[in-house]
Amino acid sequence: MTACTCGKPPEVCVCDRLAPAAIRTRVLVLQHPQEQDRLLGTVPLLERGVGAVRRVGLSWPNLTAAWGSDPEGRWAVVWPLQLAKELPVKGGVVHVDRSGDWSDTQLDGLVALDGSWSQAKALWWRNPWLLKLDRIVVRPTETSIYGRLRREPRPGFVSTLEAVSDALVATGEAPELRADLRRAMRTMVQRARDAGTAAPETPQ
What we know:
By secondary structure, the protein is an alpha/beta fold. Helices cover 27% and strands 14% of the residues.
């Protein structure tokens, strides 16, 4: 039997459905302090599935401080930027460089902001160094797996796991990785429904 390492209650744990994958792209999740106890939060799945590094807090002086060492390479932040012009979509995402132009430059790392929409915006504004990174704008072709359990403030918004899994494929990781992560999330949501431990939320 697979040991539970995600810290979730047994009824929603999906460690038995998600094996760690070796990937090239590094993943850093900046998590708002009020988000970390969410029953259906997806960051534990990213930690187990792709070795994501989670930092809980409101601000860090730079990417090096947030990552914990020299991050090296080119990084992008996953953020729902309003694009001023139509740009090519690759693998469900648009990669925008620091000048606002489309880019196909290889990325070495991704930064995701985890929390409700208002919490994510607080993280964005408290960390101005994020503006120095490239942006990954997700253009999801499917509605969020959460469904009514966690309603998003606008159509096209998805969970941290769903956004990161799309972004990882765009950086060159295997499409099977996205499928595995999404399958584990669907199982978690279904188990929560079956156990009666989750109720619909309103947008924040």
